[in-house]
Amino acid sequence: MAPFEQSATAIDAPAPRRRSVLFRNSDFMRLWAGETVSVFGSRMGDVAITFAAVIALGATPFQMGLLASARTLPELAFSLFAGVWVDRLHRRPILIAADIGRFLLLATIPLAAIFGHLRLWHLCAAVIGAGVLDIAFNVAYRAYLPSLVGRGDLVDANSKLSASYAVAEVGGFGLAGWLVQWLTAPFAILIDAISFLASAFAIAIIRTPEILPPPKHRRAGTLREIADGARFIAGDARLFVIAATAPLAAFTYSLWGTMFMLFVVNDLGFKPGALGMIFAVGGVSSLASALVARRATEAIGAGRAIVFAFAVQGAALMLVPLAHGAAISAIVLLVAQQLIGDFAGTIFEITMPSLRQALAPHHIIGRVTATISFIARGATLLGALAAGWMGGAVGLRPTMFAGAAGLIVTGALLLFSPIWSIADPADLVVESSTEASER
Fold first, then answer.
1. Helical pair 396-414 and 365-393, crossing angle rounded to 10 deg
2. How far apart are CA 132 and CA 243, in angstroms?
């Protein structure tokens, strides 16, 4: 049976609103607290690494493409294997080890700066090493969350986590710009490194026992288990659509994102402190989006929310390349993009993972997450390399316009897919669990 011939779950009437119970879940609260600290540091670290390349090391468009590629290459190379191991092993130890490893790697950047030996290759190497641990953490984290909170509370849990990301964006991005000016970029990265230790501690004190991984005698070979994850996706029309549209969205967003910092710093002439404050506006918008995401998905349906998120975010991204100089008009355009685009993007970041987590049963959720991530990151890598070439060949503005248009096209394609008719990810749990028992 072809993927699109399989019936999709459609719910015409909105589900009754559920009250949040997660504030009474102490282990979720521990996970939430640790992740909030970690993300706060990461928001500063991500900005600081980019500033270190652009300002401290004088990176060219091609070198920025290489740095963006270094962010995505580990996920492309390692994600499929990470999915297998996450499904084989206890997930909490993976999370703790990844946090400690990221602390050690990122701490080498300020150390190199102290001795005057920081180079672009070191920055790329640290980003690649941290990226390997990022994918191990992210796959394990997405697989661990349903067992901690229950699948019926996934949208609520992801909304609360996204609210933390938004608060971190307000404070982290805003503070990062000033820290780069006061301390220089390498030392702002040190705060990101330390934040991973807080996350490791919070995860270490979680008490909820994990569901036992499958025994060794039930394991197939690594390649066979990777193929099982791909077959599961191909056999579900909704997961197939998610996997099929992920590369277009990732490629086009990478075109835009790779050139963004070069455009606003070099072409428009904004300083790090001012940019940090503009980025913080996006955090406020993301926070508002996270607070209303559950109600929005209940009101219009999860599938419709995803489609609208793509279209609105793509339109918002087009505002940035319309700007000229560090004038008031440019500030208005950048702030508008942050307000509108980040609101829509947060809806997507909450709803799409919740959909994947609800559709995949426990024993294969790591491989489903990793396979889709592999597809998206491969496209992100190609987009970063294409952006490096296009930015030099046709200019930054046309490259960014092309990237923004791609997100709108992605949303249009989803209009004609089974995703559009899905109302609530929680209503998919019974179906996915039943499918799993029949396999």
1. 150
2. 21
Closest CA to 382 of 356, 409, 365, 406: 406
Half-sphere exposure of 429 toward its Cβ, with a 13 Å CA cutoff? 15
What's the pLDDT tens digit per position in 272-291?
677 777 877 777 787 788 77
Task: Give the span between the Cα atoms of 336 and 322, in whole angstroms.
Answer: 12
Token representation of residue 418: 């089974």
**Whether 317 contacts 256, CB under 8 Å:** yes
Structural contact between residues 109 and 122, judged by C-beta atoms closer than 8 angstroms: yes
Rg (CA), the chain: 21
Q: How far apart are the first and last CA of the chain?
A: 16
CB-CB contact of 428 with 242 (8 Å): no
Distance, CA of 82 to CA of 222 (rounded, Å)? 10
* Listed residue (59, 34, 48, 55) closest to 190, CA to CA: 48
Are the CB atoms for 226 and 80 separated by under 8 Å?
yes
Determine the 3-state secondary structure of 2 from DSSP. coil
pTM: 0.69
Distance in angstroms (rounded) separating the CA atoms of residues 399 and 389: 9
The pLDDT tens digits of the residues spanning 320-373 come to 999 887 788 888 999 999 899 988 988 888 888 888 888 888 788 889 988 998
- The alpha carbon dihedral of 263, 267, 272, 278 has a sign of negative
The angle formed by the CA atoms of residues 181, 187 and 191, to the nearest 5 degrees, is 110
Rounded to an integer, what distance in angstroms lies between the CA atom of residue 186 and that of residue 53? 10
